[in-house]
Amino acid sequence: MKTRNQAKQKSQSTGEDDMSRKSGHGTKTGTLANTSQVGVNKFLKQAGSRRSRGLKKQDSYTLNCDSADKGKEKHVKVDSNGQNILEASGSKNSSPLNTNDGSPQQAKPELEDVMADSDWEDGSNPNSNSEYNHSDLINKDITIEFESSPGTTKRKPIRRASAEEKEVAELVHRAHLLCLIGRGRLIDSACDDPLIQAALLSLLPSNLLKLLEATNLTVDSLTPLVNWFHSNFHVRISTIEKSFQLAISRALETHEGTPEELAALSVALFRALNFSTRFVSILDVASLKPDADKCDDMSEGRKLGKGVFSSSTIMVTQSNEASTSSGKHTAPIGADTKIASEAPTKASRQRKIKKSGQSRTISRDTDSPIVDQSNEKKMDPSSKGSKRRGDIEFEMQMEMALSATAAQTSECNIDNDVKSSNISSSSLSPFKRLKKIKFEESQEISTAFGSRKSGAPMYWAEVYCTGDNSTGKWVHVDAVNAIIDGEHKVEAAAAACKTNLRYVVAFAGQGAKDVTRRYCAKWYKIASHRVNSTWWDAVLLPLKELESGATEGTHTMSNNVKSDERTYLEDMELETKALTEPLPTNQQAYKSHHLYALERWLTKYQILHPKGPILGFCSGHPVYPRACVQMLHTKERWMREGLQLKVNELPVKVLKRSIKVNKGKVPEADEDDENDSVGPGGTVDLFGKWQTEPLCLPSAENGIVPKNDRGQVDVWSEKCLPPGTVHLGFPRIFAIAKKLKIDYAPAMVGFDFRNGRSIPVYNGIVVCSEFKNTILEAYAEEEERRGAEERRKNEAQAISRWYQLLSSIVTRQRLNNRYAEGISTQPLSDIQKTNDTFHHHDPSEDVTEPISDQANEDVGQPDVVLRPLFEEDHEHVFLTNDTGSNVGSSIRTKRCQCGFSIEVEEL
DNA sequence: TTGTCATATCGAACTTTGATCCCT
DNA sequence: CAGGGATCTTTGTTCGATATGACA
Asked: What's the domain range around A189?
């Protein structure tokens, strides 16, 4: 039975649940394999339902399946799970059409269940008419009617994500995070490769090698090194090698590589020079919110390979849509409709982006080849020309990006304005060129490349600089773009490329540390896009230790700051940053801000206490620290938390109770209620936590359990137990207490909703602690007795059924013998033979033994009872000693030799 | 372009302490 | 006739979060 309370607990403990599973002592079924399976199943199910969502929109579809089942018309019905279920009219042996979705191993009974259980949407299907002649339509084309033509479907159906979809999105998010952490560690360890480090050192000009001897590393001393790296290594888009180790070696050889590889090389170089260096990466992870990928987070789709098609295919198919789709796609109407309706908006959006100049950069993404390949695959061979033009476009963009980054290096002024920091004046000319090309090209080549929000700084290094002062700090070094100490620019640059800066993780020594705070000024914007921090912290905890262990003192030993202090100082720095976020300028940001609060955005059950200090003003409204926001509850609610109100506390807030609650009960009083609802019973008094104290219930005295006015104890938690009492949550235990005449109270543990009302749920009893052992012992004894009794009953029933079975066999044989002479007498002789072998048993011997023993050793007991069956006109005779009885029970089983038995209770 | 506001919608939380019939 | 067990049915409201669109 699921009580509301339990359900609530379950929902609240989702985070911990995962943690406990992770640590191995979770639920019984919480093995890693099971957990994974559950997650994967959800995902697959989700995928299936997503695919069919388009179909679901229509009422029902019919299609001709000539190849599959010639001459038979099938009605495709799509159930809520996305499985296509076919009914072949007039044919019983129809089988599910083997479409892509749905589970092929689905058994037939299940299928029937699905058909029975699913809510069929009523469709105006003429074929369902029994008078309908099937042959008439066999060769006719099927017309599919859309409710509105694709061109006019402007308004998107607003469908909000369900809880399940959210859960799946979160699972994907988590899994993706783990993968990206794994990737980061892989790269980090590649940066430690001594061969690569040595090779890099060998390339370094001698003047830069002096850095090896540098005692106090400063930001300025890094500049020539970074400039050298920037001028010697260049960005290439694709990578050929599959292993990162090989890829980085190749990048080292060719002086070209993906941004990821180059960033790794820079890290390796810094490490070769004995700098404490981390490899830092933005984890561009799949969105935590369902369906966010397709609208605002295309990079995530890109990373996952999920959005790749949705972005690239549309661009290409847009032009060929008419020619390709009409012939092939008859079934997946919904999907095509969706694409068709979405394509224009996307294209326009991308054009918008381009116009605003945000497509300045090249794709530095490692996954770009995937995108390109998929583009190629999706493209028609005939559209090869457009691909070429795409290449030209891409080259242009690359050139543009390089010039842009070069310009950035020279004049990296601190500018919060995204556009101005990214598009320097020198980069305008290639941008114009690109625009011109785009203008000249027909729309079909369009934006396949520019659509991707690429070019965001994704990888860089952090070098620990002791500098002139004694404290030192981690310095952002983006060698690929030749930016040093530009941590404040990262957020803007990422935002310009529509990349969310949700997770920035620094890797070192196989460990990892979340350093998002360093780069993120507006935490409130990303907070809701990050996973449950409990889980994330638990994941990072061991990695953080590894990381801090690795970054200790690899630099010169002369610095004053010790390694653990270094970690501590950085933690403090990040913490400080977290606590000193600037006040947002828009009011809505205060709604869910973790640091600040406006009174107007407080919820019904919240209050400011104490009301101050005022940290500032936003549009004239005072801003208070979020820490002053306190939750309010009713007296009863606090009781559940194990708290009670202090004496003489007045409610800090009084809410009007909803009128409608009483409406149903007192229909006559409607008008009165509406007019004046503020009565003593019409209000809810709310109290803050500061008005409460630990619950102090009357303690048990003289073996009497203090009960509430309902004669029970509400056991919301252990805290709610009166002192000196224990909760014994066992079934039927109240009977023991009753029997022993020990005072007890039923333990109510929650409510269950049935018949539209809440029903209390009880679980065991509450008794005084001194009786605990007595009751438990008696309970164990009683349960044992009950168990034995149940066993005895089961066995007696088994025996009885054996008797009945064998009797009926014998009877049947006898009838056969009598009325069907000559037909297979063999079985009878077998049975008789069996009987004969047991004939030496004396029936009176058996009854002296307990029945349970008989049943175990000699289940059938046919020898005793079968013989009399052959006698005609049998009357049951219950011998006085032929009874079985259980010790301590007044029930006796009387048994006739024929097998008939009856239970009687002796008075 | 961004912020604000209104509106719509969904999910979550909260609410809260049986009645009746049938069999033994 | 008492007592125990099975069965009945599956609320309704409010609030918060979020998406969307209009407008400044």
From this structure: 164-284+458-579
